[in-house]
Amino acid sequence: MTEMSSGKEEKAYRPLNTQDLLQGVLFRYVLEGNAASEEGRLAWVTSGFPVEIPVAMGITPTYPEQYGAVVGSQKVGPTVCGFAEEIGYSQELCSYARSSIGSTRKPELSPLEGLPKPQALLACNNICGTVLRWYDTISQMTGAPVFLLDTPPFEEEQQSHHLAYVRKGLDHLVEFLSSRFGVSLEEERLREVAANSSKAIGLWTKSLEACKNKPSPLNCADRFTTMAPVVTMRGAEHTIEFYQALYDEVRERVSQSVGAIRDERIRLLWDNIPPWFTIFRFFNGLAKRGVVFPADTYTHAWSGSLEGKDLFDSAATIYSNVYLNKGLQAKVDKMVELIKDYDLDGFVMFSVRSCKRYSLGQLVSKELVTEATGVPGVVIEGDMVDSRLFNEAQIQTRIDALLEMLE
Amino acid sequence: MSGRSLGIGLDVGSTTTKAVMVDSRGNILGSRVVPTGASGVGAAMRCLGELSRESGADTKNAPTISTGYGRSLIDFAEKSVTEITCHSIGVHHLNPSIRLLIDIGGQDSKVIRVGENGRPTDFELNDKCSAGTGRFLEVMARVLEVSIDELGPFALQSNSPCMISSTCTVFAESEVVGRIGAGESPKDIAAGVHAAMASKISTLSKRVGVVTPVCVTGGVALNPAFRYYLSKQLSAELWMPDNPQITGALGAALLALEP
What we know:
Chain A is an alpha/beta fold.
């Protein structure tokens, strides 16, 4: 029943060397954010915002959602979310939003002393509708104005009037940033940033796709931690270096048939944000039983590159076609595609109490995905930051039952 | 079935602990159901002691598989297997025609699609709360001042069940208290409580897909009013084993026969 661990035996999970570089990259991100805030050119940005535009205009972005992940990883979710709940925010509100509001209220008691003070708040509702009200609250607390890039959700194909509407929003964004920061947009600079962003995303995508190999060179926790730069610094040159190093390590693993876990037996798909407060414990625990996650729906979301003659059209298309902004079918299709392409045996859907946009429809999707692929799945419930909502015994039973079905 | 002459299954549940002992052909040699109380291990040892005294078998050294929420507590078990797999195997052994199994325990309810080989092929568990579990009925019985064993027969005396809209144990308790305060008949309220719970379970079952005959197991299966309302809501005949509480332990005992 229990795994004996001897000093000599190799661990079930093989840590990435690139993880060491990640610390440096993220440290730089924090320092740059602090400096930009002091210089009056820091914007808080949602994860799906077309960040290439503010970056090209000299504005440094920082990411409250990524900060939420830090709060979760440091296992202080209930405390920091509690700072927001004390002033009346419901436990039902997104725990990223609560982490952000709580840490803005009591930075001295929060990890990294909260995020540096913003001069603007840039929200895009392609990932959820909560971001707007959340940023409104931060605006009241900090005095920074909010800019909303509105990308109404749609089903199937994007209509031309929809694209024109989003594209107009991008023009407004440039006007907003120009008047707020006294800066202007040079097309050449935007092309440079977009090219950097594309290179980083290209390398990231290659690393993800290498997980089609057996054994898979990366597990879920590897991707969730190394995705941070592609989310937060995708226009910067040093981000490319980081993803080159990651890809080199991934290639090395593939060429030597070295997997992310020691003994790969079962390959599963992960759906949704991970439980940050137990990410390594959770995935490494499963690794001991030979379970690897070669793909997930979340880290595959950062894949589009700005390119072509008209970069604004390209940005409008990419950022409104995020699958969370499309109907349920788009996500089902994505899951089916990943299961087939990565030759997966089953899937785990994490129903995240905070993230309604991501979790809605999972029960139906589960049936549709099984119907289309023939592989079984399971829905587990919890939260990405708020560990109070994570019942380990119930989750264990569900996952164990799925594995028993596969064994 | 195998070279093993004896197999023991221990199902350490939230409310009761069940033990089943089978011979090499899967015949049940003995079974026990005792309250789990504060110690799952203590309850399991009590079951094994009684089985050993009754049969004279060496239960301590017999191959044992544990299941249920307390399965990992049983450190002398060869292996622990989830109750989802164990119930499925246990029910299949008793009635191979069953394709849908509904098990209502003290703290969760499970709906399991049973494959032709007796292994689960899909399942759904209730949400993270006591709605639709034995605990729900226990709380309602207390409010209505009826014992848990009498609650079902009591509810079946009603001709016009009350509408209980909530299946959340906490909210339903206030709702029931309100109904009592409004002077409604306790029998009608009890009937409404069962109908509400059956509706919750029937929704869960429909998610997995209702295929007849449907089997019900778990402590709550012993409640005739629950079976009546569930059968009505599913529009399906229900099949219940003679002892619906021990199917998980039976499945575990059968697995213990496999070397």
